[in-house]
Amino acid sequence: MSRRCELTAKGPQTGHKVSHSNIKTKRRFLPNLANITFISEALGRNVRLRVSTNALKSVDHNGGLDAYLLKAKADVLSPRALDLKRAIEKKVGKPAPVKKAS
């Protein structure tokens, strides 16, 4: 199982562990991932995803999983989340792009 958030694509980062004597040793900073069950109102079912706690806050801020996925860019999402986004767009209807008046 990869250590990558399915919604924000956050993954491990590398850095140094610095001792008191200033010796630098390689280490990994892992994202804070959790298995979360989201409720999709559009699809009418529960969806279980492995997401970071930061993504969980973003989902709550945007008004739920459906609203978050509709706003999210496709290149950041995992294949499972991308399938969910397409299913939600199909069920809800894709919002029409707004043209700016010049």
Helices and strands, with pairings:
Layout: E1 13-18, E2 24-29, E3 33-40, E4 45-52, H1 53-62, H2 65-71, H3 79-92
Antiparallel strand pairs: 1-2, 3-4
Overview in brief:
Residues 1-21 are annotated as: Disordered. With 102 residues, the protein is of the alpha+beta class.
Structure overview:
There is one protein chain. 30% of the residues lie in helices and 27% in strands. The chain contains three helices and four strands. Strands 1-2 form a two-stranded antiparallel ribbon. The protein has a two-stranded antiparallel sheet with strand order 3-4. The chain is elongated and about 60 Å long. The N and C termini lie far apart (49 Å).
Distance between the termini: 49 Å
Poorly predicted spans = none
Number of helices: 3
Which percent range fits the helix content?
Answer: 25-40%
Describe the strand arrangement of the main beta sheet, using strand numbers: 1-2
Shape: elongated
What does the largest sheet look like? 2 strands, antiparallel
Assess the beta-strand content as a share of residues: 25-35%
Q: Using DSSP, what is the number of strands? A: 4
- How much is the average pLDDT? 91
Q: What key phrases describe this protein's structure?
A:
two-stranded antiparallel ribbon; elongated; about 100 residues; alpha+beta
